[in-house]
Amino acid sequence: MQPVLASIITIGDELLIGQTIDTNSAWMAQELNKVGIAVHRRLAIGDVWKDIWESLNEESRLSKIILITGGLGPTADDITKPLLCQYFGGKLVVNEAALVNVTSIFERLNRPLLERNLKQAEVPDVCTVIQNRRGTAPGMMFEKDGVIFVSMPGVPNEMKGMMTADVLPLLAGRFNLNPIVHRTLVTAGIGESFLAERIKEFEDSLPSNIKLAYLPNYGMVKLRLSATGNDNKTIAELEALFDMLKQQVADVMVIDEDISLQEAVGRLLSSHGKSMGTAESCTGGYIAHLLTGVSGASNYFKGSIVSYSNDIKQHLLDVSAQTLTTVGAVSEDTVIQMVKGALHQLKTDYIVATSGIMGPRGGSSEKPVGTVWIAVGNKNRIRTHHFHFRFDRQRNMDMTAQNALNMLRKFIIEMEQ
Amino acid sequence: MQPVLASIITIGDELLIGQTIDTNSAWMAQELNKVGIAVHRRLAIGDVWKDIWESLNEESRLSKIILITGGLGPTADDITKPLLCQYFGGKLVVNEAALVNVTSIFERLNRPLLERNLKQAEVPDVCTVIQNRRGTAPGMMFEKDGVIFVSMPGVPNEMKGMMTADVLPLLAGRFNLNPIVHRTLVTAGIGESFLAERIKEFEDSLPSNIKLAYLPNYGMVKLRLSATGNDNKTIAELEALFDMLKQQVADVMVIDEDISLQEAVGRLLSSHGKSMGTAESCTGGYIAHLLTGVSGASNYFKGSIVSYSNDIKQHLLDVSAQTLTTVGAVSEDTVIQMVKGALHQLKTDYIVATSGIMGPRGGSSEKPVGTVWIAVGNKNRIRTHHFHFRFDRQRNMDMTAQNALNMLRKFIIEMEQ
Description:
Two copies of one chain form a homodimer. The first copy, chain A, is an alpha/beta fold. Chain A has three domains: about 5-175, 3-Layer(aba) Sandwich (Molybdenum Cofactor Biosythetic Enzyme, Chain A), CATH 3.40.980.10; about 180-255, Alpha-Beta Plaits (2-Layer Sandwich), CATH 3.30.70.2860; about 260-415, Alpha-Beta Complex (Maf protein).
């Protein structure tokens, strides 16, 4: 059985001039995939009547489910609701539950209710209303010629609340769905082409219902197997193929799950009851940020010293003045001393330390932009590595953080054997 | 003169299952806007022959310029190049310059050159080749019935290199372009509806070539005026209207530019020759990360102590054990002591400190998830604020960081008067 096809339409000028990065669509696609709905088109258009109208015509020709976000705000540039009302031939009426919701939100905020806010409780009389538990604009579901249209606000947490509580269950009840199941592993230290060469026979032998994808990212390559169907036979087939794949890439595999390196590090530390901290110069707190983005990080992550200046390297991490004046802050000696200083100050089992030049300025002929030293260590041993990245500031930071986490991951595995 | 319309087509299954967030399109849209090309549609589709083919038909009906990214890799799931070759009726031939490029990259990496890598130097004989200075896959430009099609790799820095060096100049030479100019200001502390109510007359009186947009984001609302044309008359008109807008929202305006709060804080500190640091508990290094994402941050940002555990709050920031056991880590007393401790340890002019419960776990009836204390201070004064956010972990962190930066910004302005 083929998955039911969906289109996501995102409405808003801010998406078209590049002022906003669309993170909603990725989340929606993941959630839809889990229940067996395949997003095959994602379209972003502006707050333009004709463009929205045509996109509804066009996407409903190609998909059974059309999810629309954005354009439901209270201001004049938001035209989605009147347009949908006209498109589906309805008229706007006050929805009592939505009105109670809007009123109570303004009472809670202790703000006067404006006419334009009251209008947010109006909905076309031809839709099923989806209440918004996290904001003022209600969602709307329409059906036309067997195609389901759902309109939701563009505010991420409002959209997510509606999707989880109402939209996904409604869609699951309306269609006969067949989930899409993925198995993903992460490799590092091997290029996409070499990986492809190595697993060519495996790839060529895949059955038609299972698909392989290569996802290169920050010097790593993810391999993803996707199967349509969660019946026992399909799952067993997928698992067997995934095991084969794992064996073929065993030496370059980082993790056999689609989790981040910070999650992998967190699990390792938790399973061994160990703690960690960071001493960051060039990454400026980014590694700490990635680690504390994981819920429950306080069980193993204790803290960091971000020593962006040399003063702080000296005074808080006890890096010697001599090292800083002779070999400099971006050096093996410095990151080794940073690990030692941080082990002492933060009193954790493991420390990862970084020092480098992220760019665009600050490089020299001897130490060009992208020069990075990373050290990982515990009280018994310290391991260092020198990198030279050749990207822009943001990507150099990403590469440094990802490599630091991977070095730490390998070091912990070795030390806790 | 109306802007020339463009579509962006992003190809790749990873975008449709939500594994990758598309940041390319936003960057491309910004750059296109600057030269007078308006992106009116952005479409993401999978590595599916029929879907790509149809999208080329469809978008070329609606736009004069079609920019395509992705699907140019060396692996079997990458089908964009053969498809384009067939679509434009060409045949694949080796491009000598691209071959030299591929060969030299592999020599530099000291890796053997595989057959599939050599194939990357093949291009349809009906395209203009755009060399890739940052990777192996060349870009391709086609023309059909007056519509320009450009295909580029999906790797962000490769795409950016091609756009800047070749694609934008080529498009500017090919079309008679009229740049779109934006003026943006940021407000805080006022809802979108109230803002709209306040500037209703202003909005209604705008000429047809100037458009106003509301962009709500993390408790702030950006207001953007956009004009088509960069002739003196249009610019003068836009500036005059922008000045009027600024006057109408003066009391709630944060910045009259489209820059981030971390950039605004950085400029303030630089202009007064002052320094700062952070003492972060719940934000776990995120504020430091935002600040150090700005190039040149080392001029004013000195470092941080991320005190995720109470031990580190006590030992490195000198928060009293009594405070931690009586009122707890998430309290006004704690963030005040964190500011004092960090001023002492980091020796900066300003410190911002955070402590809170980001969720999803760790809340209690007395201090539910979303409870946050923030303090900003210098050696003379400390200011605190209590927040209660009601979002998920990531958004609670974002709200905390944005509010902390805004509190710091206001505090610096007041102190440096």
